[in-house]
Design goal:
By secondary structure, this protein is α+β, with helices and mostly antiparallel strands. Helices cover about 25% and strands about 15% of the residues. The strands form 3 sheets. Strands 6-7-9-8 form a 4-stranded antiparallel beta sheet. A 3-stranded antiparallel beta sheet has the order 1-2-3, covered by helices on one side. A hairpin with a 2-residue loop joins strand 4 and strand 5.
Length: about 280
């Protein structure tokens, strides 16, 4: 190979690397697509610019804190959310669960920072003949779930019990025993039939923690197909709980994620508005 050709190839490689360095991480691009904000780079670091709300860092040397609040946006992708057949979830009680890490600043900028701001932007989700309050940005996804569930129940009416007497959707509150806002507070979550649910804090004895579930694959598939994650995929299981987190189900979002050192801790988001659980 001639020196001239090697020089050209070296220049091409350098240009490709420069282009890669100037392109935001795929996860950050996804967040800018699914939430508010735009990817920006300065001082050698990538950020999500939220306009007057400031900026959120993509990377940080630290992981989520002990209550599950993230210190950087890349923390959201630390633990991959994996769909597919329902299988028992095993792991230590201090394990991190996919989707349980949240960035309050991202959610508040997108959905509303106060109860009033969120309430003013609530739409209505018609589900099984009842209208429930959900955030206007998520109404279309909730509606698509309704179409899937209605079609499913025509084929398998016996599954209707799982979507009757549901626990609720919007409720302005934090997750029990933490200062982290619940995704219910932003109007992007729903709890299905509480009576048919299992929740890790309800298990007795608590140790060793044993995963339990009664929700069928078809119900889970219907929600996951439209961008909702399921609490039954967690060690700290919450089988009634579904929340709209499309960035965790989009495979293109995982490229370019930097995984910081693991830390202990986490929270669960389970219970009903009046249960005292959260």
């Amino acid at each position: 190979m001639t020196f001239a050709l090697l020089l050209v190839l070296g220049q091409v490689t350098a240009l490709e690397q420069l282009k890669a360095d100037e392109s935001p991480p795929k996860g950050l691009e996804c967040l800018a697509r699914y939430y508010l904000g735009s990817a920006v780079k300065h001082d050698g670091r990538w950020w999500l610019s939220l306009g007057k709300e400031g900026e959120l860092p993509w990377e940080s040397p630290d992981g989520p804190d002990l209550e599950g609040a993230a210190t950087a946006l890349s923390d959201l992708f630390r633990v991959p959310y994996v769909t597919g057949p329902i299988t028992p979830v095993e792991g230590p009680e201090d394990a991190e669960d996919p989707g349980r890490t949240r960035v309050d600043g991202l959610f508040k900028a997108t959905y509303g920072a106060t109860r009033r701001e969120v309430e003013e932007r609530l739409g209505r989700w018609r589900f099984r003949g009842v209208r429930y309050p959900v955030h206007e940005r998520a109404v279309a996804a909730f509606d698509r779930v309704s179409v899937r569930i209605d079609a499913l129940l025509k084929e398998k009416p016996k599954l209707s019990k799982f979507v009757e007497n549901i626990g609720g959707t919007w409720s302005w509150r934090t997750i029990a025993r933490t200062k982290v806002m619940s995704t219910h507070a932003f109007g992007i979550a729903v709890d299905l039939n509480v009576d048919l649910s299992h929740y890790w804090r309800w298990v007795r004895p608590r140790k060793p923690l044993k995963w339990k579930n009664r929700f069928p694959q078809e119900i889970v598939d219907a929600f996951e197909a439209e961008g909702f994650i399921w609490g039954g995929r967690w060690v700290h299981f919450d089988t009634m709980h579904f929340e709209y987190r499309p960035e965790l189900l989009d495979p293109s979002c995982r490229e370019g994620v930097v995984t910081p050192p693991a830390r202990d801790g986490g929270t669960s988001d389970a219970g009903t508005p009046d249960s005292g659980v959260r």
